[in-house]
Every structure is written in C-alpha cells, then in structure tokens.
Design goal:
The complex is a heterodimer of chains A (about 450) and B (about 325). By secondary structure, chain A is mainly alpha-helical. Chain A has two domains: about 5-45 and about 205-450, no CATH class; about 60-185, D-Maltodextrin-Binding Protein, domain 2 (3-Layer(aba) Sandwich), CATH 3.40.190. Chain A has 16 helices and four strands. Chain A has helices at about 5-25, 25-45, 45-55, 75-85, 115-125, 155-175, 180-185, 205-245, 245-255, 255-300, 315-340, 345-370, 380-385, 390-400, 405-435, 445-450, and strands at about 60-65, 105-110, 130-135, 140-145. In chain A, strands 2-1-3-4 form a four-stranded mixed sheet, with helices on both faces. In chain A, β3 and β4 (about 140-145) form a beta hairpin. In chain A, α3 runs parallel beside α10 (about 255-300), α4 (about 75-85) crosses α6 and α8 (about 205-245) packs parallel to α11. Chain A is elongated, with a radius of gyration of 30 Å. By secondary structure, chain B is α/β, with parallel strands linked by helices. The longest helix of chain B has 16 residues, at about 165-180. Chain B has helices at about 40-50, 90-100, 105-115, 135-145, 165-180, 190-195, 215-220, 265-275, 290-295, 310-315; strands spanning about 1-10, 15-25, 30-35, 55-60, 65, 75, 150-155, 180-185, 200-205, 205-215, 225-230, 245-250, 255-260, 280-285. Chain B contains ten helices and 14 strands. Chain B has two domains: about 1-215, 3-Layer(aba) Sandwich (Rossmann fold), CATH 3.40.50; about 220-285, Alpha-Beta Plaits (2-Layer Sandwich). In chain B, α5 (about 165-180) links the parallel β7 and β8. Classes of the chains: A mainly alpha (about 450), B alpha/beta (about 325). The interface between A and B is medium-sized, with 27 and 32 residues.
Chain lengths: ~450, ~325
Amino acid sequence: MSPTLRNTLRNVAAVARREFVFRGRTRTFRITTALLVFVGLALALSPVIIRFFDRGSTGDRIEVVVGTSAPSMNVPLTLGALLNAPALGSGSSGGSGSSGGTSPDYRVESSDDLATARKHVVEGSSIAVLALDRTSSGDLAFVLYSKDGPIARSSLVIQQAVSAIAIQDRLTRLGVPLVDQATIFAPASFELRQADPNASSDRPATTEAFVGTFAVGFALSILLFMAIILYGQWVAFSVAEEKNSRVMEVVLAAATPFQLLAGKVIGVGGLALVQYVIVLIPAVLGILLQGQIASILFGGGAAAVGLPGGISIGMLAVFGVMFVLGFALYSVLYAGAASLVSRQEDVNQIVAPLTLISVGGYLVATYSSTGLIPIDSPLVVIMSFIPFFSPYLMLARLGQGAATPLDVGIAVLLLIAFIPIALWVAARLYRSGVLMYGQRPTPRTLFRALRGQ
Amino acid sequence: MALVLDGLTKRFGPITALDGISFRVERGSVFGFLGANGAGKTTTMRIILDILRPDSGTATWDGTPTTDVPRRTWGYLPEERGLYPRLEVLEQLVFFASLYAIPRREAAARARDWLARFRISDYEKRRAEELSKGNQQKVQLIAAILHQPEVVIMDEPFVGLDPVNVSLLKEAFEEMRSRGTTLVFSTHQMEMVEELCEAVAIIDHGRLVLGGPIRDVKRSSGRQVVRLAVEGDMALPWLADLDGVSVRRPGQDFVELDVDARHDPREVLTAAIAHGERVTQFLIADPSIEQIFIDRVGRPPSDDHHLATVAADAGGTGAPGSAGGGTGVEPTGNPG
C-alpha cells in the first residue's frame, strides 16, 4: 500500500470513527433506535397484531326487527351467515377460512322493539337495525336504520344480503324446497388471470395478497425515505456544525476535503447500518416466528393459523442494499451542499433541492405501489434505473413482483457507478465552500466552486 | 532547509488578496508575520497549509512543494479558533492527533502532559463549550502541536490571553524552538516580535513591504534612534537647529530623536555638550519594529483597535469579517 493511500484510509477511518462514536452516544440516536425497533417489530408482526385485536371482538351488532312480516326463514340466522361468509364480508383471515379461528365481522340479533333497537344504534351499541315488512304484492320489504351513508361498506353488504333473503323468501312461496335452494345459491367459480401471457407469474393473485404486498412496499418506501432524509441530514448538520464552530479549518489542515467527506459519510452511514441491524434482527425474528407467536396467542398448530402475506426477507435484503447506496448518494451531496452555508439554520434551505428530488422519487414509488400510477408504466420503469430515484422505485416494483433480479442488479450497479461522481462534485463544493462565510450561495458561486476557483 | 514562498498570488473575484508574496523562513527559526487585518496573512498561511491553492507562485518546504509535504509536517492554529463544542477536551485532542497517525494511547498521554503544563488538567473531561475563551485557546494550541510537527503556523496566538497565559505560551515557544521546531506566527503585538522573532515579514495589501532577519530589517530602515536625557529643562530648543534630526517623542524623562542615516548620532551628544547641557543619558538604538511598520505601512499595526480618523481612513480599515474566507482584504488603499 502506498503511503498516500494509507494516509487517506487512516484519515477517513479517524473521521468516521469520531462521527460514529460521537453520534452513537447522543440521546437522539438512542431514542430513534428504540422507536424504530418498535416500528419494525410492529410491521413484522402486523398480521398477528391485527388478528390479536380482532380476536376478542364478537363483531358489530345488527338487530333485526321481524315484526309481522312472517318470513319463511330465520332472518337473523340467515343474515348472519350471509354477512360473515368470506365472499361477502371478507374476514380478516386470508384464503379459505370460513372455519377455524376466524372471528365474525357481524353479530345479528333479533329484537321486538324497533324504537329500542334504533336507540341502540344512536348510542353506538349496534351499528344498524334492519326492519322487515311486507309490500302489498307480498314481497319482503326492508328498512335499514343506520348512521352510515348509502355507500358505506356495511350498508352495501347488508343490501346485498337482504336481496338474497328476499329471493329465498320468493322461492319458498313459489314452492321450491330449501334443499334445492342451497344449490341455487352456491357461489360460481371465478378466477382472475393476467391478460399478458408472458407476464411474471408472481404477481399477487388474491386481494389479500395484493393488499399485503402493497402495504409492505408502501411501508418500506416510507422507511427508506425517512432514513435517507434523516441520516442525510445528520451528515449535512455535521458539516455545518464543523463550519459553524470553525473547527473545519483545523481539520482541513490535517485531512483533505475528500477524506473528511468520505469519513463523515462512512461514519454516519455505519451508525445508520448498525441501527438498521438492531432494528432488523427483531423484525426478521418476528417474521420467522409469527406463525408460532400466532399459535401461542390463538391456540392451534402454527400452520393452521392463516396469516396474510407480509414482508419477506428478500425484500428486507434489497431494502438494506438500496438504503446503504441511496444514503451514500444523497448524504454525499447533502454534505457538499451544507458546506456552502455558514449557519446550521440555513442547512435545510440549501439541501431543499436535493430533498425535493428525493420526495419526487418517493411519491412516484408510493403512487405506483397504490396503483395510482401503473407499476409497469414507462415512467416508473425508467425512473427505477435512475440513481436518484432507483432506491425508492426498484423497491416498489420488487414489492409487486414487477422487477426481475436482473433489473435490481442493474439499478444497484448504476447507483454504485454514480456515487464516485457525486463524491467528486461534493468534494469540489466542499473545498471552496467550507471557507466561504457569509456569502449567499448563488448559482454563480456554485459554478465557480465546481470549477475549483 | 527552509520554508520558501515565491511570488504567491491569490485573487478572490475582483479582490487581490496576495500580490506576489515572497519570503523565506529558515528551519528552526522563529518567524513573525506582521500586517494589519486583511493584509493577507491568513490567506498566506492557508496556502502554505494547502487549504487554499494560489493562482500563481509556489510554496516549498526543503525544496518540496507544500502540497506534497506530509500533513504531519504542519501544526496549525487558525485565527478563528475552532473546537468541537460538545466533545470532551481529551477526546478532542486525541481525535486531532489521530489525523496525524498518532496512536490513541500515545496521543492521550501527550495531551495530558500538555494540559498539565498549561495548567488545565482539570478540564480534560469537560466539553470544549464549557471552557473559557482563554482555555479553549490553550486546548487549540495543544491540538496544533500534539503531533510534534516540524513547522507550527499560528495565526495571532497571543490574542485573548492574559499575561500569565502569555508567559506560559512563550515558555512553550521556547521549548519547541529548543527541539528544532520552526515557528511562524502572525501578530500585531510588536513587542512579541521584538522579543521572540529572529526574522519577520511585513505585508500590507497583499504585498511584502519588508522582510528578513530583524537586524537587517532594522538596519535597512535608514533610521537611527537616539535617547537623550539632561538635567533641568527638557525643552531643548537647540534640537530644532540640528540637521537631519527630528524629535520623535518629547518627554520629561527623556526625548527620543530620529537621526537621519547620513548623520552620525554622536553629533547630537556633541551638540548637547556644546549647548552646555548636563547629559544624564545618551543611547543609540535601532528603531523599533513598530516604528518601521508605521514608516512603511503608514499606520500602526494595531490601528484597527482604534477609531479611524475619518479624513485619512474613511472606508479603509476595520473591514468587518476580515476572516471571511480570506476575502476580507481591504478593497481600498490607505493613504500613508
């Protein structure tokens, strides 16, 4: 190793060490770590947690007032069966389960007094009252007393259920036996398939699976965005603090701007990575053990508890890589920009353009995760390879199974190739910026700084 | 074996901060760097340390461009003192030393040693922001010399120190010098220069006004100073008739006279005796550096500490933000 290289590595390490140790000891770091561990664990165990809070509930109460309508079946029982069937009021469990540990969404009870039942709705102990009557033509007529509007989910589901009850009542009056009615109401076979025969097959097939990956992609985008902004600002503030306390000049006499910059980014980045691992370990354990945890909480074998699709370990790995690279890119430029201002108050202002770029990538990623922008639109695909946006968008595409490992690999390589360019630009800005006090950083001064004047 | 600056020029936009500065600092010497605020001292130091690059000209240490000299050659005490406000003193010093490849344990031992010598051992676990200005400055100086550099460059090291600390600093100077360390410092306290320096450079508006060993500088000034005291009346009206002699400082204790280089100072003594004065003191001295500075620059070096005379100095001195990235060079000339 040449002496120059050794010297460079040594200084980078010294700067990184100070940054790492000093920031790691701050209270801010400890609090954010604790908070993130909590969030990570909650995210990993979200299916179990949702189930847990759902378990105790016996469903929303709906009261039925039959009155003098004399229907041909037990209306509360039938309504309850229809509302809690998976096809209509989809339960919190995925897949097949109308059986097992699923708790009912609705609880239907009979009532004699309409006035009392309506009072229950007003008080909030019931969500609705369904009153039955007969029209002059002899059909069943229904009135729903509810606080919800006509397009509320409960209203729609109940409306769907009562038409089935009305038809059942008509069939009985026409003399169709109840046994035959069961076959009439059996659900039809229905399946959703990709229109494109070449489309990748791992797109989520069911609604629950889709919601699961969407939620994960969404949550990871938010986390990535927050992490890049948070840690990037640590670097920016660290630069501004050194400049503000004028310690910069002492350090610059000993180390080059490049060494300082690289040391800072590595120090803060290393700390961020440590934090990430601290957060990751309980989260991964949570994912791996969520079946067991669920079985302890709800009883029964681990496999028997149906849980919706959640975060995968592969996604977490890509998240880690994208986080490190995205952070490196943004924080290097944050540092370069922050070196141009004299006071810490001005840091946010000077890094605003970079933050805006970051927000842009983040917004497109979340929009494409939620389906507002199609995930395979050219905008999303192209942006998912551009270094500033790729961390967010590749993650979003991957979350929905719309990116191949090759895509991810190319995006990662492009990011890695771009970081030295950013480092060069930032070191240039830094060299001229750190000794610039009290001047407004105009585009002209930026340009001059880049040319090294 | 010397630090040699040759034709250093540096511009910041329309302002010329350095305009062809050349001088030479011998290895192992103590060198004073004089100039008013904004004269270009800080810019020159930053160029030596490769914090700034000159537009033209070279700086070399023992023949090697300073950009290629290992960083540990230099120790630097900037004019704007800077420490990490929330870092403990000892940690701070160990960090700075680690940038010069001093192992942590070794650095801590040396730091404790220096802290003790500067009588601030009690503060080793304190955060820098809790220290008084004077103590911060001492910590800053230790940071500059902990790695035992060959050359220590100090920007106004005596400013802000009380007399006790000034003498502590002088002792440290003496010790470093005895080890062969080259010391370069800027100041506008001329008595420090007279007391400590072997050679000086006086710069003004980015140009070298005068430079070299102190004795040469004093001789080249073309001035001789005579101190005269007599019994009785000190008015001495006959002095006005003497050719090439002017009163610099009248006084009841003694008068100080400037004697033109073409005249022998002893003519004053002859004349005094001829006028029947009873001479109690007669002394021939070199002019002080301060006098030379005033002669050449047109105002005292510490003029910035006084209110400017409006007619002579409007818009001239006292430029705010003279530390401003070396750009605080006075744009206007100063009559003098």
